[in-house]
Amino acid sequence: MAYNARHHILSVLVENKAGVLTRVAALFSRRAFNIVSLAVSPTEDERFSRMTIVVDADASPLEQIVKQLNKLIPVIKISEIAHSEGVEREMMLLTLKAGSETRSQVTELSSIFDAKIIDVGYEAMTMMVVGEPDKLDAFSDLVRPFGILEMQRTGRIAMPKLARQPVKLRAVRAARG
After folding, report:
1. Domain 7-85 class?
2. Are 7-85 and 87-160 equal in CATH topology?
3. CA distance 23 to 18
4. What is the rounded CA–CA span in Å between residue 72 and residue 23?
5. What is the C-alpha separation between 138 and 78, in angstroms, rounded?
6. How far apart are CA 135 and CA 130, in angstroms?
7. Pair 109, 131: CB distance under 8 Å
8. How many H helices and E strands in the chain?
9. Residue 54 in contact with residue 35, Cβ under 8 Å?
10. Sign of the C-alpha dihedral, residues 125, 144, 129, 25?
11. Band (82; pLDDT cuts 50, 70, 90)
12. Which of 115, 138, 168, 176 is the most buried (most CB within 10 A)?
């Protein structure tokens, strides 16, 4: 799920109530928008949840759906996070064939990608990789020849990058004695 210029990331703050996810997803479905990924979880305030929705759309039709989302009562706030202005992460769990003859190669690739081995069997290994979607794509491409038995990705989560102000350095004089 590499970066795609047509993919837009929406961060939607909603009331943490039953049925809200269904209403939001139905709005996209009725407009024939393809949701590339969807992640939902409670926020620091248990009354609210944050939905990170990655949608495949042109910019102008997306404006229309954002306006319609704003009309839904449980929606509190909607922000679009530009790829260059956000921090994105995704998690992938995958189980690979890894018998005694290939286990060291799989382990070496895992360490290069900071993948964590979370389960080991006689003929397979399960690992977790966290990072930007491109990193997960690259890892899965490299381990595919070993044989992917099962794979699950969470979908992207994203937050805006923090504003940075230049650090002002003061000249410090050494005290003379």
Report:
1. alpha beta
2. yes
3. 10
4. 8
5. 31
6. 8
7. no
8. 4, 9
9. yes
10. negative
11. confident
12. 115
Determine the Cα–Cα distance for residues 37 and 53; give it in Å rounded to an integer.
6
Q: Are 94 and 127 in contact (CB under 8 A)?
A: yes
Enter the tokens of residue 118. 């979370």
Integer Cα distance of 128 and 125 in angstroms: 10
List, for residues 55-70, the tens digit of each pLDDT value. 887 766 788 888 888 8
Size of the chain in residues? 177
Verdict on whether the full-model pTM lies above 0.90: no
Q: Is the Cβ–Cβ distance between 115 and 103 less than 8 Å?
A: no
Is residue 96 helix, strand or coil? Answer: strand
d(CA 56, CA 34): 6
Measured distance CA(55)–CA(24) in Å, rounded: 12
Q: Could you tell me the strand order of the sheet in which 75-81 lies?
A: 34-42, 48-56, 7-15, 75-81
SS3 72: coil
Question: Which of the four CATH numbers 3.30.930.10, 1.10.10.10, 3.30.70.1150, 3.90.550.10 does domain 87-160 have?
Answer: 3.30.70.1150
| Domain residue spans of the chain | 7-85, 87-160
For residue 47, the 8-state DSSP code is T
